[in-house]
Design a protein that fits this description.
The structure is a homodimer. The first copy, chain A, is α/β, with parallel strands linked by helices. The first copy, chain A, contains 13 helices and 15 strands. In chain A, the strands form 3 sheets. In chain A, strands 1, 2, 3, 4, 5 and 6 form a 6-stranded mixed beta sheet that branches. In chain A, strands 7, 8, 9, 10, 11 and 12 form a 6-stranded parallel beta sheet that branches. In chain A, helix 9 runs antiparallel to helix 13.
Chain lengths: ~375, ~375
Amino acid sequence: MIVKPHGGTLINRILSEKEREAILSYRKQFFTLEINEEKAIEVQNIATGVFSPLQGFLNQEDYHEILLRNRLASGHAWTIPIVLDVDRPTAAKMKKDDTIILSCGGSPVASMRIEDIFAWDFAEYAQNTFGTTDERHPGVKKLKTYGEYFVGGTVNFLSEPISRYPQYYLTPRETRILFAEKQWNTVVGFQTRNVPHLGHEYVQKSALSLVDGLFINPVIGEKKNGDFRDEVILDSYKALLDHYYRKENSVMSILQTEMRYAGPKEAIFHAIVRKNFGCSHFIIGRDHAGVGSYYHPFAAQKIFDLFPDLGITPIFFMSFFFCKTCNSIANDKTCPHPADAHVDYAGKIIRDKLIRGEIPPEIMMRKEVSEEILKHPHPFVGDD
Amino acid sequence: MIVKPHGGTLINRILSEKEREAILSYRKQFFTLEINEEKAIEVQNIATGVFSPLQGFLNQEDYHEILLRNRLASGHAWTIPIVLDVDRPTAAKMKKDDTIILSCGGSPVASMRIEDIFAWDFAEYAQNTFGTTDERHPGVKKLKTYGEYFVGGTVNFLSEPISRYPQYYLTPRETRILFAEKQWNTVVGFQTRNVPHLGHEYVQKSALSLVDGLFINPVIGEKKNGDFRDEVILDSYKALLDHYYRKENSVMSILQTEMRYAGPKEAIFHAIVRKNFGCSHFIIGRDHAGVGSYYHPFAAQKIFDLFPDLGITPIFFMSFFFCKTCNSIANDKTCPHPADAHVDYAGKIIRDKLIRGEIPPEIMMRKEVSEEILKHPHPFVGDD
């Protein structure tokens, strides 16, 4: 049996074609709110159940419960606000119980029934989500650009789910069908925003050895400068999967959502999302979803103690390295040898090699992966 | 929290010194039954809780429930009869509710209150436990030597727990104290009756990466000709642990019990015993506790489906090998490459090398382990 979605029910808020037609024919009567592509993708995540049990953007009660208790008002664990922000003049044009149309680039995305419109406090949001109000933190910095009101309410999707990478896009309903077809009961999810080195492969295969299937689920969406570009991550993972993984027990599809860099809070959020995709287990490494030195390297593991009811089992890995005495990849639980026997999988060494157009050592990265990355003239965000 | 013992309570049937004195002073009034060392060790296992929730040798009801339903009359899973056999003349000397003394080599081992004395059927026992009545099967062959009656009843241990290898002997009460001291909540047990090659290390370390501690628990006791001698297993594991494992998360102690070679039934029994030692997880490899080709290689994994209430999580490994393309140890879930890229960890190749006094390739066995084995002039049972 595949794990149940968070909250027990996989949310589906995609309207049928007839419903869609009916609403769009009344479109002129509704206030239309233009949203950016990133928000439109969050609407799609809500509608396709990626964010189950959310059925829309957070209302005031859920929003405050999350910040205060890391839970929805229903009691289900939730750690990252999924909110629709508007500025003051726009807020003034809407009221409770209105139905509005969310539109992106002039195309209708969803209808939304407004539950409430409420002012929010920057410091409260930032401190409780990111653990800091420091505006050099990329998540905090972005929060600074938000409008001063949040609009809460359920959404109904007026489109078909779309993706810039349709060959790698599956909704939770589709991943669950796929896992069932493959007769996977236990599935370990792996989050990534990086190209794969041998340490990642080691972690994934260690976990896969204990479950039925591996679900590699890169985060595709807005990232900070210096992160690998989405297509580089996908192409490099495809090379790895083609050459070093078994098709019958390894699947890759994408998670379209922005990185928040909220560390431990985002680790819980990432686990919940993977549970919705059908994962029974989720890998949490060192400094998951972290940035700079804002979080303790193991804070994103420790936080799981607060959520015994999460319904997805975290698998924790600490550091891993090549040990010359073990003559294999090892981690700090399996290897007793001193640090001078270790070769670290430092992302920086690999990155510096790649920037110079060189193939990193094969002890660090598969040749097929390196070659794929080097086919891209600009592998990093902001380097063109 | 360390996992609860099977049945909920760790059985302790070791009498206090005063109780012991009192019973021994009445010894002449009790019928004394001489048992062999192997049976005396089973009494010790019962008394120290290794076989919790058993409090003595099986009575007729529990015995039949096990053969028919793989459970005790209480409903708890149990798959291997723990019985005290006697011949007809001896049976005639005892009756229900008698207290008898079990003695080994002239020394009292335990008092036993007889619940029942019952005839048993060879074919029923053999077929339900070993899946065969073929007397070439070592477990069946041994069964053929049993007396025609079983004596059921609770035992009270009249001695201190002993071992031929005291430096490696811990009772379940002691392992649980040790695990608690080490702050292990999750512990994976590894059963072995072999010297360790790199495949074993790979399996153990893969599992250890996901839990707090590793409990290597070799079976020490009567084995068939050609198996490694107990002291060779212990010395070789000590070499491996000293050189390649971390002391703070790896412990070895022994399980003193005979191998039954009952394959899947014995796999469940082995898991229950490790649960009693405090293991939350237990590794089941290919053909666990099997012999010859009596069992399907994965029967000992499949059988766990019948015991969702077992209270210890099995971790299944299939075959593992060195893959020249992966350039690492791999298993049949993690490696997609064809068989000609694989070097098998065939016990036979290693054994043939060792018989000729040669060091097996380091790709198969750690040099420190090989050297330790070769220090023993007669490493195999029956080769002297």
